[in-house]
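**User:** You know discrete backbone vocabularies at least as well as I do. Would you mind producing a protein record, from residues through to fold? Write it directly below this note and I will take it from there.

**Assistant:**
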Amino acid sequence: MNQFISCFAAGVLIVFSSVFATASEGPLPLPQGGYKVYSRIQFVDLTTQHPVRDKALGDTLEVSFKSQLDQLYRLHNPSVRNLQFVERVPQESCDLRITGTYTLRAFGNRGMHATVMVENLRSGETQSFEAAGDAFETTEILAQDVFHEFQKTRFPTQARVSGRSLTLLFKGSIYRPTATKMYDLYKQSLIACEMRGGRVSTEKELIAVATLGDYGGGVSVGHNGVYTDYWSVESGRVYVAPWSQSTSATSLNPTEQLNYLCVR
């Protein structure tokens, strides 16, 4: 599990090689080749003591969660599936176990609050996720959060942009305090990257890395919900998506947040 894996993305501008095995974010370091996950997920009802209903609803939540997770893998089609459920294998032979709880809520017949806990069976480390809504909404949100956590780009990682090696150090966001000017946010992004031993990306680097997306070893650039996506780039400019162009930071009004990619 300590061997190095290289994943290559076809294209003129960029070739990606992962260092997932040596660097990670969060409490669950990612092993080489991803995790084997114990196939059963037991959702326990914390509201009542009705075992027949508990088992039926718990089984429904398990099937729905796995189905939502599978749909995300089919949609994004990452080169390595970092969460792989395995059948007919004892729990002790797996890397992770996922367990869940739910509490029925008063705001609707199907309303609930649910959590899933991902436990590393080797180290005992855990990571928890929660959501609320009806059964489908809840498992959909939980699957999205778990997928994102285990498939997102983990920094630092290496890329080749226009024939040269580039280290992607960190992706961050600066949220705007009241009346803060865009150029002040831009200066903060420069300082943040400098403190990490790097610099903000150029516009060309950002566009190249964006071809990989969050689940291919890069970052996703584009619409962020209802807000326009703003990114610091070199030379005092801000790349604005979906306009697909950059403009001077001094010419822009304040935005809710300014993203930046630190590279070296």
In short: Confidence is low (pLDDT under 50) at residues 1-25. The radius of gyration is 21 Å.
